[in-house]
Specification:
Helix content: over 70%
Radius of gyration: 26 Å
Shape: elongated
Number of strands: 0
Distance between the termini: 26 Å
Order of helices and strands: HHHHHHHHHHH
Structural class: mainly alpha
Number of helices: 11
Length: 253
């Protein structure tokens, strides 16, 4: 579980709900079925129209990715690539074949296998860049889905409020009841804006962060593999790879 995602959501919901309660509001006046149905159902429906069912089926995976803690051990990655460079310098590129079974990362294993098979460096870079591009495309689907939901949600809230006002003004003659009904109509706007800014857009940004971290890691692996294939000195390989690592991680490595 990603503590930052969970903590941020808890703080946002607690701040909004707590402030409302301090003003004398009650939760049962906010959790109204009709406004929630209009906002949630309308937002999901409009968002689904813009995408494909394959993307919709991956929404649980996107959610799990946003709430899961994924950290990259930069020191371990750099040390692994340097060790592979040392082995390649000592035994030749074919000597890395024995190392493949001990490598868990599928991208790195594929890259090394291509290098061992004698793939030209330019071709190898092209293949790996294409692989990264496809990964970026898959990631962008989840980011786009939640960004679009964050855009539709406030509009659906306004739509719900308008519908509520039309119904209220057309069927209520009692002034006291009308005021209560009008207040209830604005609950849809509340839900639309709240879901967009507390859930949909933050989740989209968290997925973007996960995407940037993974792409940076893949580019690090690609450059490391190309350096190993070129037979670079392990010391130079380390210096080259450390340029891809954030300064605070460089100190650790």
């Amino acid at each position: 579980m990603d503590f930052a995602t969970l903590l941020g959501l808890v703080i946002a919901v607690a701040a909004i709900g707590g402030s409302y309660a301090l003003e004398g509001g009650t939760l049962d006046s906010v959790f109204l079925t009709a406004p929630i149905l209009i906002v949630v159902g309308g937002t999901l429906g409009a968002t689904i129209v813009t995408t494909s069912m394959s993307t919709v089926s991956q929404v649980p995976t996107f959610m799990r990715l946003a709430f899961s803690e994924r950290t990259t051990d930069h020191e371990r990655t750099v040390n692994l690539l340097v060790r592979l460079a040392e082995r390649a310098r000592r035994d030749g590129i074919l000597g890395l074949e024995k190392e493949l079974g001990r490598i868990d990362d599928k991208f790195l294993r594929k890259a090394l296998q291509l290098a061992i098979d004698g793939t030209e460096s330019d071709t190898l870079r092209s293949i790996l860049e294409t692989e990264i591009a496809y990964i970026e495309e898959r990631h962008s689907r989840g980011i786009t889905f939640f960004r679009k939901a964050g855009g539709f949600s406030p509009t659906m809230g306004i739509l719900g409020t308008v519908l509520g006002l039309v119904h209220t003004l057309g069927n209520t003659s009692n002034a006291a009841r009308m005021a209560t009904a009008i207040a209830g109509a604005f609950i849809a706007t509340l839900w639309g804006v709240a879901l967009a800014n507390v859930f949909f857009l933050p989740i989209a940004d968290k997925l973007r962060l996960r995407h940037d971290e993974e792409i940076a890691h893949l580019e690090l692996l690609m450059e490391g593999t190309l350096a190993i294939q070129a037979g670079d000195n392990p010391r130079n390989v380390r210096e080259r790879l450390m340029s891809f690592v954030a300064p605070h991680h460089r100190l650790a490595a």
